[in-house]
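Note to self: keep these together.
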Amino acid sequence: MNRAVRRATLTVADAATEGLDMVTVVIGGAIGAWAGYTYSPDTWSGDWRLAFAGGAAVVAAVAVNSLAELFLTPLRRLLTKARSTAQPTTTRRRTAPAAPATLSEGLAQVATATENDAASRAASDAWGIDQGDGFLRAEDRWRGYEDATASFFLAPGVWLHYRTEKNEYGRNAARFTLLTGDGDQPVPITHVEQIRHRLAARATGLPAVPATGDTKDMVADTIAELDNHLKALEA
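Structure:
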C-alpha cells in the first residue's frame, strides 16, 4: 500500500477509535439520564428526579465506556502495531529469559519487564501528542523505569517524561512533561509543537518555561525571530 495512503488510513482509524471512546461516554450518559429520570419515584420532586438522573448518567457513562474498552484497547494495540510497521524504525527483539532459580533473579526479571513495559506504553501513548511520522513513538528511544514511568532523551539536558494518572472516569491517562537538567519547573506537554517551541527557546538561552509579566512579548518576539532564521536556512 502507498505510504501516504496507509498513513492517512491509520490517521482516520485512530480518529475513529478516539471518537468511539467519546461516543460511548455520551451514549452511556444519555441512557443513564433517561433511565434515572423515567424510573425515579413519581412522588419525588422535579429537582430530586433531575439529581438522581444526573447521578445515573455518570454511573452509566463510566460503565458503558469501561465495557467499550474491552474491544477498544485491542484495537488501539493493533493500530499501534500497524503504525510501527508502516515506518522504518528499529524494533527491539527480546527473548524470554530462563526461569529464575532464586527469588532475587525472579524480582530482577520482573523489574526489567516493568521497565520494558513502561517504555512500550510510553511509545504507544505518545500518539496522543505526535500523530506525524512517529518521532516520539520510537520505542527504542524511550527508557522505562521500575515505577512504570519512562523518559525520552530530546537534547542535552532536556527529557520528555511519561507517567499515567487517573482521569475523571477513573481510567489511567497518559501525562507527558518536559524536564530539564537545570531544575526548571516541569512543563506539561500536550502537542509535539510545544516541545519544538521549548527547545527553540532553550537554543536562544531563554528559560524552558513560559514567560510571564513584562518579558512575555520579548520572549515571543525572540522565538518568532528564531523561527524566521530557521525557515530561511531551510529555504
